[in-house]
Amino acid sequence: MPAVIFIAPFNLPATMRFVHAVASLPNVRLGLISQEPLDRIAPEVRRRLAAFERVADALDVGHLEGAVKTVGHRLGGVDRLLGTLEQLQVQLGQLRDRLGIEGMGEEVSRNFRDKARMKDVLQRAGVPCARHRRITSAGEGWAFALDVGYPLILKPPDAAAAKGTFRVTDAETLHHALSALRPSPERPAVAEEFVTGRERSFETVTIQGKPVWFSSTLYDPPPLHVLENPWIQWTVMMPREEETEDTRLARPHALAALQALGMGTGLSHMEWFRRDRPGGPPVAISEVGARPPGAQIVSLNSYAHDVDFYERWARLVVLDQWDSPVRKYAAGVAFFRGQGKSRPGARVVALHGLNEAQRDLGSLVVDVKLPQIGQPRADSYDGEGYAILRHPDTEVVARALRRLISTVRVELG
């Protein structure tokens, strides 16, 4: 009977779906560590827990080490230590190393978390990625701009979901980005060549380093463009076709990247570009995460394959088991993002186009979270709500997603 500890710093719906999946596995003793009080955990998860420990800071390895020891003692040992939050991956590696728990250790986790280190590893392995440099001063940032030219990207080395990322187009925006990031030896930044093209994701299941399954999605538009334009509603689509020109281009580079970075057992998430610059390589790897993807991609897999992908993930990371599903549908998600005043304290004041969207597209919708009147403006690029659609025909889903984001409008005030 495996003993598993899941660290879920915050009671986020996405995180708790993974916790629930592990809790639902038969013959598994589950312990949960969180900053949240136990009474805020959903009852269906609470009643399946064998142990629980609350900590003051669930991103601090010092707080977590004592909690893991305490929960591990209650469970009679620890076979797996899990967590899906990107900002937690290095701490999980440190804890596994310190406490002798099987799984990805600190050095490998830093390959995925530190974006400058990641690209150094990829470059040495011959994996195509943007030119880059770790910078520890404003002067190094100016020197990189002189070498590479504009546009370029500046971001923290541990950036996630494009947060804290700056697109630099000239000397003025470079000055602004360097002033915001203030790179230093203690807190470096990453400067990268700005890659243009169509952005995609590539997900891979590996067991002890061996790839056993993959899938791919299409972003429209790229996430950085979404962050720079708060009014844009965007989509992520998974074609019904498992083998496409995109997957044929990306797969060899994705597998080489995972091998170079040291991926063991799990579901990884790679973001990459089909470059549109003539004469250059057709693929550029942007980032690779050693954890499940966000942007509802796990749910898209559930609907596209007609299986519970969260349960599949749980069996993978706890039991090293994987059964490759058959894809039956194309699936896509449209993210509804508020338009209008983006001042502090802005809230949803109206929803437009819902009746028209329901009339024309309602038969395709399999999951929806509509923005609510009075809801605060979201601070993430996922926006205030979403709708997931599916259909056996990829083009039907593609057209429906475009129609949906042009019909539904979330008004802020």
UniProtKB/TrEMBL annotation:
SUPFAM superfamilies xrefs: Glutathione synthetase ATP-binding domain-like
Name the record gives this protein: ATP-grasp domain-containing protein
Listed SMART domains: GARS_A
Keyword annotations: ATP-binding, Ligase, Nucleotide-binding
Membrane spanning stretches: none
Keyword Protein biosynthesis attributed: no
Source organism per UniProt: Nannocystis bainbridge
Residue ranges of every copy of the ATP-grasp domain listed in the record: 119-318
InterPro entries listed in its UniProt record: ATP-dep_AA_Ligase, ATP-grasp, ATP_grasp_subdomain_1
